[in-house]
Fold:
Amino acid sequence: MNSVLPNNTGLSVNGVIYKYSISKDPNTESKVSVQNENALGTGYIFRETDDWSYKPGSTINKSVPINNIPLEYWGTGSIVVDGDGDISNSKVTYTYKIDQCANPQLNPICDGYIDPLLNVSADNVEYYDATKDSAVQNATEEADVEYIDEEEKELDDEEIEEIKRRLERALSASANALALANKVSQDAIISSMNISTNINSYYNKTIQGGVYNDTNRLVDREIPDNNQGLLNGLAQQLLHQKMIDMQYQ
Structure:
């Protein structure tokens, strides 16, 4: 994994994004495991298994969050098929973060910061800072004054304005470059997020079963009249007519 991830102190993996295609018989059993061995122990530090049993082959994109496991635990990674199936177009991406305070000499804002210049054990080693040498400072100041005076004597107003325009164009180009870099970075993040939301592989899911034929049959072609219903209807009609006649008597 040292060839896959930066070998930095304080690096931990917080996510695994993988993609692969499998070709198989839809009537066979198959399980595919994306895994990493435990470099400091036995077994696997990460293992995600997809069950393709009795399913047709397809392509899967999946994102698995990890609880910030340090880099030193991550061993050799592999994609293993248990059963029928062939894997192609596989890709595994690891997302990670770096704790800048893990190295006491990396970031001065962290607690317990150690200045690298103070961590010198040899007695005969003397630290020399050239920027604090008086001779160097005097030579630098004199050179700057001479250069500025000479430039002011040689340049006229038009040349100064041209220099200002060039500086403005240079600054504009730098800003555009930063904006482009930020856009490319955002596009890469969005692309990685879209990998985990691809649900094309679920469209091929099938449910075992068959055709359920209708077992009810109409033996007689005609339904006979309900004589009991006719009698009830006639009685209701007679009662209704009697009530109407009583209103007009």
